[in-house]
Amino acid sequence: MSSDDKIYNKLLKTIVAHQLPPGARLPEDKLSEAFNVSRTGIRKVLQRLAVEQFVLIRPNKGAEVYAPDQQEANEVFDSRILIETQLIPKLVRNWDRTLSAQFRQIVVQEKKAEQDDDLSNAILLTSQFHYELAKIAGNSVLASFVEKLCYRSSLVIASYGSINSVGCDCGDHGHLIDLLDKGDEEGATVWMKHHLQQIKQSLDIDRQRSSDIDFLQLFSS
Questions:
Q1: At the topology level of CATH, where does 3-67 sit?
Q2: Which helix (H) or strand (E) holds 64?
Q3: Within 68-184, where are the H helices?
Q4: CATH 1.20.120.530 spans which residues of the chain?
Q5: Taking the alpha carbons of 58, 64, 70, 73 in that order, is the dihedral positive or negative?
Q6: Cα distance between residue 76 and residue 78, in whole Å
Q7: Mind listing the pLDDT tens digit for each residue in 68-87?
Q8: Phi, psi for 23 (deg, rounded to 5)
Q9: Whole-model pTM?
Q10: From CA 16, how far away is CA 221, in angstroms rounded?
Q11: Is 6:41 a contact under the CB 8 Å cutoff?
């Protein structure tokens, strides 16, 4: 993996996990110092993230973490509802005990993150649950699209959500696994739609943001 890819992955993870909140400025000089690379290298990574709509670059003002508005937040979850519910039939056909055990381990980690009030890890885990689930349906193109939507919705949750947005208040993923274990296609489809609608409804669009970031400490590891 190239140096640019490592920086890209690190920045993407911190954005998705709400360690770099929406609206936070991303000064090239501070990032260059934190990663010990040139500003040119940082600029390339920021431009890549901007293409994927995780970063916004303003002329003469520099880069900042992209902050989705209410319309975009709704569209992201509406897209997920449309696609992820349609994947359920193939998902049920490909489901087995081994997969059930693997996904129950993710649920265990999710519940621990919720108990610890660890929003960053909870966001990452719930995204992982959904995009790994999509891969099982056997359509790599749609699975890749779902993965991108999960990242985008993670940014939405980082902007306007809370631990409740990824916690049991919006539906325990273990219940979906129970339905898949039974081969209950209709029940799993209904559950998925309701689950994503509940997350959408949990968002607080008027939430205030903070952008005071210590880049050296954040990227010291």
A1: Arc Repressor Mutant, subunit A (1.10.10)
A2: strand 62-65
A3: 70-86, 88-94, 97-115, 119-136, 140-160, 173-182
A4: 70-201
A5: positive
A6: 6
A7: 888 888 899 999 999 999 99
A8: 95, -15
A9: 0.77
A10: 18
A11: no
